[in-house]
Amino acid sequence: MKIFTSIPALKIWLKDNKSNNASIGYVPTMGFLHEGHEALLNKAIEENDLVVLSIFVNPLQFGENEDFDRYPKNIEKDIEVAKKYGVDAIFHPSVHEMYPSEMSATFKVHHMDVLCGAKRPGHFDGVATVVMKLFGIVTPDRAYFGLKDAQQVAVIERLVKDYHLNIDIVRVPTVRENDGLAKSSRNVNLTKSERAEAPYIYKTLLEVKNWILDERCYDTDKIEVKLKTLLSKRLSGNLDYAEVRGFPSLKKMKTLSSDVMIAVAIKYSKARLIDNVIFHLEEKEGKLCIDK
Amino acid sequence: MKIFTSIPALKIWLKDNKSNNASIGYVPTMGFLHEGHEALLNKAIEENDLVVLSIFVNPLQFGENEDFDRYPKNIEKDIEVAKKYGVDAIFHPSVHEMYPSEMSATFKVHHMDVLCGAKRPGHFDGVATVVMKLFGIVTPDRAYFGLKDAQQVAVIERLVKDYHLNIDIVRVPTVRENDGLAKSSRNVNLTKSERAEAPYIYKTLLEVKNWILDERCYDTDKIEVKLKTLLSKRLSGNLDYAEVRGFPSLKKMKTLSSDVMIAVAIKYSKARLIDNVIFHLEEKEGKLCIDK
């Protein structure tokens, strides 16, 4: 397995391999790999001749009062994980390698000032900018993103479409702890009691999904009241948002229809957790069908 | 010669040709082709297996009170010119084909609020956005840009570098009428008397360049006073700017050094003209050398 910190060195290696028509799968991460990332690597390995994993904590996507400085790191362990899964190259650049000087142009993401976009101003501008840079460097055939960051998936899918990149964006389902908590690098920043209650995030999402099914309640206002009531009863963290929206449209609906996401963000003392459930809703022969 | 109005059709044609390892030269234009564009086509034909010419008047790069609606068009003549030069494919999309819905993300260009960037707010954001889209569609090996739009060249060179695109940006010198006026699609929007005096733009640029050489005056303040005095004496149009800057740095200098651009923009009743001279300045063995 190759480890590159230099963009030109990685590009030479890629060029050599591309000349043999090798397909490139790409897993962009901020490191501190967990089983969620491993699911991305697994799928990438399955579907491509070569897999590139990048590990880069991108300062551009962190707000001033966010956790850039305390974002967890463990490069040695990440290298072991990558080796285990058969990754062909790790790209692990410094901030200076990625941003030797201020960018001449960055992305302004539009119509994304909802959910995390509303709560983290500039976050998706930074994500779009670094992902387009990374796509330019790696030029993958396929890139793998986890659905825990559902809004990020929506942003990147639109970016790839609008800028006509020949890259398939592959959505990978959220991986969870045994108790249901979505795997996240930030979980290590939870206190013991926060960690103990955090599984209620997903439990509540599932409960509300089932309540929609049982009650046939498609009124999103009512659903959100139910969701918020349950979450605030069960969780000590601050509710950043708890909303029902279309996915990947992210549009607000008065009445639930077709592709639905229930999304939640909770602020704890040193970690902000997000989670969601996404499902397809369909009336069929008078019966309600939910899948995914 | 193929003519494409559809992005997917062009992409299929490109894919077929790329699979034969054909190198692609690309000349992006807004149409109404003149000898300046022909110089771009000529160079592209010389250096590549296949040449794609795009003709698209991009609404995103025009300000509200600018000349988008009256930008000159003559697609039949453009097709004849393209055929004459041996262009392989014209890409001539509608606005709807390029922007079927509002872009999910556009570029914000930084540190370019000088020269045309200061006078045309948002112009280079629109240029960067459409050029990155077009590069995504055409995926050329080389792309050709005229030095009349020197700031545009600087913007695009930085964009390609910052987003790691494997595209060579080829600078092509300005082509001029016999009387020295820089070829421009907008020249047809000059009145007779404006057209008669317009050659003084370039004459003055040359005169100031020679004056710098003769007087060994490197003080940019003094040079700009000289330039503005001459231009306002000779031209009835409004001076939008007349400045001495580094190129491609576009930085203001107190004292001239190395790569210099003298750039001018004049506003006439229905056309805004820009022009520049770019040269390399060097003290060698006590003697001043200017080339380019």
Give an overview of the whole structure.
The structure is a homodimer of 292-residue chains. The first copy, chain A, is an alpha/beta fold. The first copy, chain A, folds into 2 domains: 2-172, 3-Layer(aba) Sandwich (Rossmann fold); 185-281, Pantoate-beta-alanine ligase, C-terminal domain (Pantoate--beta-alanine Ligase, Chain: A,domain 2), CATH 3.30.1300. Helix content of chain A is 38%, strand content 24%. The first copy, chain A, is built from 10 helices and 11 strands. In chain A, the strands form 2 sheets. The first copy, chain A, has a 6-stranded parallel β-sheet with strand order 1-4-3-2-6-7, sandwiched between helices. The first copy, chain A, has a 4-stranded antiparallel β-sheet with strand order 8-9-10-11. In chain A, helix 6 packs across helix 7 and helix 9 packs antiparallel against helix 10 (220-234). The radius of gyration of chain A is 20 Å and the shape is globular. The two termini of chain A are 35 Å apart. The mean pLDDT of chain A is 96. Chains A, B: Catalyzes the condensation of pantoate with beta-alanine in an ATP-dependent reaction via a pantoyl-adenylate intermediate. Chains A, B: Its EC number is 6.3.2.1. Chains A, B: It is found in: Cytoplasm. Chains A, B: (R)-pantoate binds at residues 61, 152. Chains A, B: Homodimer.
